[in-house]
Amino acid sequence: KDHQNVPPVQYRELRALLEAMLSRCADFSQTPLNRKPLGHASSRDSEKAILRRGNFLLSTLEGFRNACRLAVEFQSEPSAQENPFTAPSAEKEDTLEAFSEFLLSACDSLCIPLVMRHSEQATHPNLMEVFLSILHNLFVIVPHMKEKFSKKLASSSFIRLTLELKARFCSNLSHSALNQVCSSFLFYMSLNLLSAPEKTGPPSQEELSAVSAFLQHGLPQISSRSPESLAFLSDRQYVEGTARQRQYCILLLFYLAYIHEDRFVSETELFVAVQSFLLSLQEQGERPPLVVFRASIYLLAICQDKNGTLDEVWTKMPGALPPPAAPLYIMAP
Q1: Averaged pLDDT, 232-254
Q2: Is the pLDDT of residue 199 over 90?
Q3: Are 266 and 299 in contact (CB under 8 A)?
Q4: Which of 133, 144, 213, 308 would you label with 63, given CA atoms 20 to 30 Å apart?
Q5: Rounded distance, CA 129 to CA 177, Å?
Q6: Rama region for 238: left / alpha / beta (φ>0; ψ in -120 to 50; rest)
C-alpha cells in the first residue's frame, strides 16, 4: 500500500461534525413528550415519540461508531497520525491522538448519558449493540486510558447492565450479535480491571492468560439473571469443564463488580454460593486459577460479617486451598 497516496485526515472537521450530531441528538432527546392525562391515543403518541428518539439516537451512535472504527484503522496508518497541511499553531488539535481523546471524552460526557436516559424509557438490542461496541472500540483507541475508563464503567454498574442485557435478550440463542458484543466488552473490561487492581498487585502474565482463556470460552455462555447465576455457582453436582469455566466467569464478574461498589446480589446468598463453589472444587479435587481463588476469598471476606467467619469456611474446605507457595494476600475493604 502506498502511504504517500493517503489523503490528509481533517480531524478538526470530523470532530466538529460529531459535535454537531451529538448536540442535535441531545436537544432532540430533551424534547418533552406530548403526554395527556387520559386516552389510548396519547399513550400511543408517547410510544411513537420514544421510538423516534430511539431511532435518532441509534443513527447518531452509528455515526459515532464509524468515527471510532476510523480511528482504530488509522492507528496502523503512519501517514494518518496527523494532517501535514495543518497550520503549526493548530497542529496538536489536528492529530489522531487528539481526535481519539475527543472520542473518549464525547462518549463519556454525551453518549453514555444519552443512552442511559433513553434506557429508562426503552431498551433496544440493536441500539445497545452499537453502544457497547463503541465502548469496546475506545479501549483500543485510547489504550493509555483503558484501565481508568474501565474502572469508571465498572463503578457505574456497567457489569450489571451488560449481564442484564445478556439475560434479557440473549437467552435461547437469540440476538447473537448483541451477545457477542456484550461478551467482548466484558472480556476486555475484565482484563483491564485485573491489570490495574485497586487493592492488590497486578496478576502475572501467566495468571492473566489463564483468565483470558476461561473468559473467552465462558462469557458467551452466560445469559442468566443474577438469581440463576448464584444458583449455578452453588451447584454441588459434578461440574464439567465448560460449566466450570462459566462458574469462573460468574464469580470473577461478581468480584469485579463488588470491588467497584456495584453490589447487585445479596451478600448472604453470595457467601453461600461462593462457599458451595469452593466445596465443589474440593470434592472434585480441582484447583481453580489463582485469580479465581483470590476473588473467592475476597468475596467471602466482605460477606463474613453477616454469615460467620472465614475460619469456619477454612476448616470445611482445606483441600480447596492453592499450593502453599502461591501468594494469597488480598485486602478486604
Answers
A1: 92
A2: no
A3: no
A4: 144
A5: 7
A6: beta
How remote is the C-alpha of 299 from its chain's centroid? 20
C-alpha cell recorded at residue 185: 466488552
Q: State the Cα–Cα distance between residues 124 and 290, nearest whole angstrom.
A: 38
d(CA 79, CA 2): 10
Q: Which amino acid would we find at residue 209?
A: S
φ, ψ for residue 299 (rounded to 5)? -65, -40
All three cell numbers of 1: 500500500
Q: Name the grid cell of 295.
A: 476473588
Nearest to 136 by CA among 101, 195, 183: 183
pLDDT in tens, 29-62: 887 765 555 555 567 888 888 999 999 999 999 9
Query: What is the helix (H) or strand (E) element at residue 64, kind and residue range?
Result: helix 40-74
CB 103 within 8 A of CB 22: no
Is there a contact between 139 and 146 (Cβ–Cβ < 8 Å)?
yes
Nearest alpha-carbon partner for 214 in 181, 249, 179 = 249
Average pLDDT of 248-257? Answer: 96
DSSP conformation letters of 130-180: HHHHHHHHHHHHSGGGHHHHHHHHHHTTHHHHHHHHHHHHSGGG-SHHHHH
Q: Smallest Cα–Cα separation from 195: which of 263, 156, 139?
A: 139
CB 247 within 8 A of CB 233: yes
b/e code 34-49 from CB counts within 10 Å (16+ = b): eeeeeeeeeeeeeeeb
Cell numbers of 20, please?
A: 454537531
